[in-house]
# Entry
Amino acid sequence: MKKLLVLLVAVLLVLSSTALADKVELEMNYWMSEQETGIQAAVDAFNASQDEIHVNASTVPWGQYWDKLITGLPAGSAPDIFSINALNVRDYAKNGYLLDITDLFESGKVDLTKFPQHVKDTHTVNGILWGIPKDFDSIAVFYNKDMFDAKGVAYPADDWTWDDFIATAKALTDADSGIYGVAVSASGQSWGYDYLFGNGGRLFDENGACAVNTPEAAEAFKKLADAILVEGISPTVEDQVELDADVRFQSGMIAMTFGGSWSLGTYADVFGDSLGVAPLPVMKERKTVSHCLSWVGAASTKHPEAVKTFLAFMGSYEAQALTADVVIPAYEGCDKLWAEKFANYNTDAFLGAATKGWAVPLPAADTNTQQIFTRFDDYMTEMLSSGVIEDNLAAMQDEFNGLLGK
# Structure
């Protein structure tokens, strides 16, 4: 009897290992460790849904993530599936590193009508959408209700203007005590692009050349610089090197901060009912830059059809609904799940970007994308520190067009 049991166990082990060997094993990497619970739940659901493919998902820290890809993709040793952002999708697509998944859209396996247009546009290069839209974000104002209440200042209205914002921030500022209404930071995503576009300017023209040196852009950046240097509602950029806006906000040193929808969960945990959310104040027209991520396949994968099968699943309502705890999923209707989780807050300040047309895709250059993105913030630092606007815009335009070969 004992021998029979041993034999039976051995047979089962052989059958199990044979079944596992028959499965296509795919490797998947992403850097967003704070989203691991939702992403792994989606991967587990896929693995449980069929018997032919198994996906092994793992996070790689941001600092190592891109090094691993840029080394592995040309060598053919990259993961089969990975996440990508707007700042890299152009270069990766043009270098032939990404798997063409057009047939998923043409066949209807992924319904593109379920995704916002600005999200699709962000990951479209040379007329091809290279990834499965994963999520999107937008920028709004977080504020500390307790600090407003202590000063008797009215909470921001949804239709407030730039002048309203300056007046509100002044009423909340006590510079002698190190308390400010806000921290205007040298961040293109949280400040620069939003008001460049919101004041009628642009970074690139229709031919991809830098076209930032305009009166509209100069006016926008002057207002940002004046908030620090003239109005005194913000610590200087130099002071923010020691303590950035996020630390100051969570420490009660500033009453407002401009930030992304991805921070709502963190701030809700810190402030609870004392947290308020409002749309960005308007200069000329309401705009907010919106970034988004997508899931892509490596062109070097040995299993392109298996990768496509998995990516089609990640483009479904089922998969995206599982990620709504932290970010706004791109799939239609899943944004409501995110909003329900944060029902105590003004989530429309973020969701209105897509539903009401405020969203402008995070601008990405045709080449040298990451360098241009970094240098934009460097120029912002100089403008906010010195108040010298036109000369810096002219220098930015010349430098960027040199990098673009324009």
